[in-house]
Amino acid sequence: GENVEQHPSTLSVQEGDSAVIKCTYSDSASNYFPWYKQELGKRPQLIIDIRSNVGEKKDQRIAVTLNKTAKHFSLHITETQPEDSAVYFCAASPNTGNQFYFGTGTSLTVIP
Amino acid sequence: KAGVTQTPRYLIKTRGQQVTLSCSPISGHRSVSWYQQTPGQGLQFLFEYFSETQRNKGNFPGRFSGRQFSNSRSEMNVSTLELGDSALYLCASSAPGTGTGELFFGEGSRLTVL
């Protein structure tokens, strides 16, 4: 089955700096790659996603890049703010159903 | 529009008991999936139901089972509970359609097994 690895597990940045989280996947059939943000004590929420026919997608301060050949994708957050502090999960879906394989999460702390 | 609702929110059980968790999806959503969240393991896929049929299944033992009703509400059951089953169980629903899409999560049911 699919295996998603996520790095780093923890990340601290100064407010205003950029943050990058990287994920790799193993199943070449995976074609949808979402990123979820989970604030402390709250439910995960989708922040951005990318499909396999696209190499990059951007939404304001957040961007995701995908390298299908290398089987890795990354989340980029620019101009970080304290409210960006949360746990971020990457995921990959190898089929047409809603079956997702998640990474183990990155705890991001933005220091004011 | 009401979000995904899970009950109960918290529960404590002892080893060997069984537990049933309930999930009501967003109105109109026919896909309901379940995930187990534990510290350090992230979210692990249990199963997905679509139109009352199990469409996908993760790598969990047969003690974990689920079902979906005609109104799309779903239940999951864990029998013969083990200490390692202690976790947050998240339910998520997805918009109509058979393709892969955004998951809308509930707040979860936190299970503690003593």
Tell me, what's the shape of chain B? Answer: globular
Strand tally of chain A: 11
Tell me the greatest interface: A-B, 26 and 28 residues
Average pLDDT over all residues of chain A: 94
**Largest beta-sheet characterization of chain A:** 6 strands, mixed
Helix content of chain B: under 10%
Shape of chain A: globular
Oligomer: heterodimer
**Average of pLDDT of chain B:** 93
Please provide a brief summary of the model.
The complex is a heterodimer of chains A (112) and B (114). Chain A has 112 residues and is an all-beta fold.
Structural features:
heterodimer, A: 112 residues, mainly beta, six-stranded mixed β-sheet, five-stranded antiparallel β-sheet, 11 strands, 0% helix, globular, B: 114 residues, seven-stranded mixed β-sheet, four-stranded antiparallel β-sheet, 53% strand
Written overview of the protein:
The complex is a heterodimer of chains A (112) and B (114). Chain A has 112 residues and is mainly β. Chain A is built from no helices and eleven strands. In chain A, the strands form two sheets. In chain A, strands 2, 4, 5, 9, 10 and 11 form a six-stranded mixed sheet that branches. The N and C termini of chain A lie far apart (41 Å). The model of chain A has no long low-confidence stretch (mean pLDDT 94). With 114 residues, chain B is mainly β. Helices cover 0% and strands 53% of the residues of chain B. In chain B, strands 2, 4, 5, 6, 9, 10 and 11 form a seven-stranded mixed sheet that branches. Chain B has a four-stranded antiparallel sheet with strand order 1-3-8-7, with no helix packed on it. In chain B, a hairpin with a 5-residue loop joins strand 7 and strand 8. Chains A and B meet through strand 4, strand 5 and strand 10 of A and strand 4, strand 5 and strand 9 of B.
